Amino acid sequence: MIDVPISVLELAGVRAGATSADALADMLTMAVAADGLGADRFWIAEHHNMPAVAATSPPVLAAAVAMRTSRIRVGSGGVMLPNHSPYVVAEQFAALEALAPGRVDVGLGRAPGADPVTAWALRRTQEGLGPEEFPEHVNLVRSWLSDRGVSVGDQGIPLSVTPAASGYPQLWLLGSSDYSARLAGRLGIRYAYAGHFGQLDPAYVLDLYRSEFRPSDELTDPWAMVCTSAVIGATHEDAWRLAGPALALWMGIRTNRMEPILSPEEADLRLTDVDRTTIGGVRHVGTADAVIGALERLVRSCDAQELMIATTAYDVETRIDTLRPILAARSARAR
Q1: DSSP states along 81-106
Q2: 3-state class of 79 per DSSP?
């Protein structure tokens, strides 16, 4: 059974013929549905310069979600730390925590989530864009988003990100590689494996995280999440039809053909038989029973404490219809 918390990863997908405003309206519809259905977290990814993705600023979008929901945790999945000043990231999430106390997560990632030119434009400098600075920057954000603070300069002047904090966001490290798993373990923070596109065995990655784990002030025992992708349909054939847009998007990224999310009909015309068998566009496709069974096996195989679902689809109704039976199955078995 899926007896772990289940959450949502959101990219604010832009469908063909629609606008960014439409995509963000769909994001809010999805968030309200996830909140009502009992999802535990609603995380927003960071991507740039991509026609299919309107999720460019997780802190801004998470604030909008927090104001329209009542109980679900909101945050980033993740903020791509090389793109930003650690101090700015800490300030933004401290402000979010003040707006939605006890409901904010800050997930940090090492990849830029963008092409090199866009990554440079975000920072206006090459400084801080390399992977070697990442552990230091994670620790800076971590210290600022705690009661420890950071002292800077030769005279050790204290620098804070909020004048009177009443609480602090929950910190996560995200990644699709063994590097991020090792680092999260060594730092003693929560870890989420991006299994919706990562190529490593989730069980291997989470075992590696646990083997490297060192207790910290925030976390005494390892806490791991696995993220995967899913599309559910009324029948097996219907599910694969609904998954066509995700497969077409994945193939477009691989072939540098960047475009909005196609309709199922347009995707069907675009995809070849080989494309349909390519792993990566969507991990779990089928009826509710089939997908729920696969998710149960995934959670057991890697002993994850939490599960996160990403669904790329042409319309928000498909995304909600995928999430609903997964959460209903968890709720029913929890009783």
Answers
A1: GGGS-HHHHHHHHHHHHHHSTT-EEE
A2: strand
For 153-204, write each residue's pLDDT tens digit: 566 678 888 888 889 999 999 999 999 999 999 999 999 999 998 889 999 9
Q: What is the DSSP letter of 188?
A: T
- Tell me the CA distances in angstroms from 159 to 26, 81, 92, 149, 264, one per residue in order: 38, 19, 15, 7, 51
Pairing of strands 306-310, 224-232: parallel
pLDDT digits (tens, 9 = 90+) for 259-317: 999 999 999 998 887 777 765 678 999 999 999 999 999 999 999 999 999 999 999 99
Report the alpha-carbon distance of residue 276 to residue 269 in Å, rounded: 12
Pure H helices in 176-263? 178-187, 202-212, 236-254
pLDDT tens figures, 83-113: 888 999 999 999 999 999 999 999 999 986 5
Tokens 């990566």 label which residue? 280
Handedness of CA 101, 144, 181, 194 (dihedral sign): positive
Task: Give the three-class secondary structure for 309.
Answer: strand
| Interatomic CA distance for residues 112 and 123, integer angstroms | 11
> Comparing C-alpha atoms, which of 203, 286, 292 is closest to residue 1?
292
Nearest Cα neighbor of 59 from 104, 114, 14, 123 is 104
Give yes or no for a cis peptide into 78 (omega within 30° of 0). yes
Query: Residue type at 243?
Result: A
The whole-angstrom separation of Cα 317 and Cα 264 is: 13
Can you give the length of the chain in residues?
Answer: 335
SS3 260: coil
pTM, to two decimals = 0.94
